[in-house]
């Protein structure tokens, strides 16, 4: 049964605290926070000050998904703001990927490595010992509401095998275009965490959307 990480990129930013509370109370497992810098990706979203101010609205672990160049420069700020997991991109310009991942752990957070759709997953293998969570992007990062790229699912069996070979139980998160259908495909393929913005935040009932993604809809009615 996959866990669910609603992405607040699809929230109403004028009432972000309330939105974080709403999805937390609807049964989410994590809060997924999309950080974009207008350089690594074309869009600009939020920074550590916003993470800090929404922190008080949820007890759930915060995943800060950094879609930014030189993530190593901002790790301490996102850690101090209340992130529990910090994800950095393999493709982002940075001094040294391994060193960035280690800096995340040193800052007291779990280290996530994110991989874009065109990047072969094998490129991430050499870093797996320094990774606590692997993020497989199922859209090209930059915007919410994009269409799921099914080809990325083929990455999951290979990486699972490599993790097993190394004796690791690193969870795999998938992010972008996740809905009831693509979420089922992703969890069938072995994804452990489904990040979903539009599908959860814009649905009539966040609880139903989350339960559907988890595959438990209809089994527990609250
Ligand atoms: C894409 C972001 C995703 C995205 C998810 O750049 O990393 O987290 O916003 O939103 P949906 O679920 O709407 O694709
Ligand atoms: Zn994301």
Could you give a short description of this structure?
With 222 residues, the protein is an alpha/beta fold. The chain has helices spanning 16-25, 48-55, 75-80, 97-106, 155-165, 180-189, 198-201, 206-214; strands at 3-6, 31-36, 62-67, 85-89, 110-115, 133-137, 172-175, 193-196.
Describe the protein's architecture and organization.
- With 222 residues, the protein is of the alpha/beta class.
- The chain has a single domain, classed as TIM Barrel.
- It is built from 8 helices and 8 strands; from the N terminus they run βαβαβαβαββαβαβαα.
- An 8-stranded parallel beta sheet has the order 1-8-7-6-5-4-3-2.
- Helix 3 links the parallel strand 3 (62-67) and strand 4.
- It is globular.
- Residues 7, 32, 34, 65, 175, 195 line the site of zinc ion.
Give the strand order of the largest sheet, numbering strands 1, 2, ... along the chain: 1-8-7-6-5-4-3-2
What share of residues are in beta strands?
15-25%
Categorize the overall geometry.
Answer: globular
Question: What are the bound molecules?
Answer: D-xylitol-5-phosphate, zinc ion
Low-confidence stretches: none
Give the mean pLDDT.
97
- Write the CATH homologous superfamily: Aldolase class I
- State the order of secondary-structure elements, H for helix, E for strand: EHEHEHEHEEHEHEHH
Main traits of this protein?
single chain; 222 residues; alpha/beta; TIM Barrel; globular; binds D-xylitol-5-phosphate
SSE arrangement:
Blueprint: E1 3-6, H1 16-25, E2 31-36, H2 48-55, E3 62-67, H3 75-80, E4 85-89, H4 97-106, E5 110-115, E6 133-137, H5 155-165, E7 172-175, H6 180-189, E8 193-196, H7 198-201, H8 206-214
Parallel strand pairs: 1-8, 2-3, 3-4, 4-5, 5-6, 6-7, 7-8
The protein binds D-xylitol-5-phosphate and zinc ion (ZN).
